[in-house]
Write a structure and sequence with these properties.
The chain is about 65% helix and about 0% strand. It is an all-alpha fold and about 300 residues long.
């Protein structure tokens, strides 16, 4: 499968193919474009695209193979839904703050406080004492914020329970909270589809690429491609580890700084190291789930 990134459309087809015993490989659009560019045929059509997919797969036989993994799929669905609710609440809070500012700038809540029940209720009590349409609209938006917060908290608790049960090894990684663990579990889409930790790091945009010539030999930078959600989650883990004075991550970062690396270079090395640990722990969690699964009846 290849060409456009249409996984939201092809998910059901992939599941049907996998259930039928077929192997499914996703070919990145970048490879598709390269194969079309060097092909003898010109133009763009379904047959040309299909041929480009096949040629790209034959040229790169070690592309990740899709697999059934209901645990990672459930994690992704839950995390994505929670994030959608958080974005909706943020937009509603921004609108609410402008209405409160219009009514009385002195009553503006503290930054990042409206996700807490006591601040929500304090603002609601004041708005009930104010007359006018603006106060009515502000009160209506505050009720939306309160309802969204309750739903977000419910998803957070559900995600936490799932991660504690399905990925305890990953959750035990210093700096990895429940939401970050769920994000990594969901975005990996089945860790067994990666043959090596290097493939996982490349998928997450954490594998450095060379950018040197002549006297600048040995210089590298992070790739700007890859799964940015995985990259972001591992970045959060790295930053958290740097705040822990006695953590292995902090010691590794200080070691790289002592080797005359810049802060950016040292952080890049730390993220790559964490990617290796995440890969190993995800595999350990997967193997544990497989070993404890109830065997099917003969």
């Amino acid at each position: 499968m290849g060409d456009r990134d249409c996984r939201h459309l092809s998910a059901r087809l992939e599941r049907e193919l996998l259930s039928a015993g077929q192997a499914v490989v996703r070919v990145p659009p970048k490879m598709m474009a390269e194969q079309r560019r060097v092909a003898r045929t010109r133009g763009k059509s379904d047959p040309i695209d299909a041929l480009a997919v096949a040629r790209a797969f034959l040229r790169e036989p070690d592309l990740p193979v899709a697999s059934h993994d209901e645990v990672s799929r459930e994690a992704k669905l839950l995390v994505d839904r929670r994030e959608a609710l958080v974005h909706t609440r943020t937009r509603t809070i921004n609108s609410l703050l402008w209405r409160v500012h219009e009514l009385d700038p002195e009553r503006a809540p503290k930054p990042r406080s409206l996700d807490l029940a006591k601040h929500q209720q304090a603002l609601r009590t004041w708005l009930l004492s104010v007359n006018g349409v603006v106060a009515e609209m502000a009160l209506d938006e505050l009720d939306d914020v309160i309802a969204l917060t309750a739903r977000i908290n419910a998803f957070t608790q559900r995600i936490g329970a799932m991660v504690r049960a399905q990925a305890p090894e990953l959750l035990a990684l210093p700096g990895c909270g429940e939401l970050s663990a769920a994000k990594l579990l969901g975005e990996s889409a089945g860790i067994t589809r990666f043959a090596t930790e290097a493939q996982f790091a490349r998928h997450g945009g954490l594998a450095p690429i060379p950018v040197w010539s002549g006297a600048t030999a040995g210089r590298v930078r992070m790739t700007r491609s890859g799964n940015r959600q995985i990259n972001c989650a591992i970045h959060r883990i790295a930053v958290t580890q740097l705040r822990l004075k006695d953590s292995l991550g902090r010691a590794y970062y200080d070691k790289k700084r002592a080797e005359n690396m810049t802060k950016t270079e040292a952080l890049r090395c730390l993220k790559r190291r964490i990617a290796r640990t995440v890969f190993n722990r995800l595999n350990a969690d997967h193997n544990h789930r497989q070993s404890t699964a109830i065997p099917a009846a003969a």
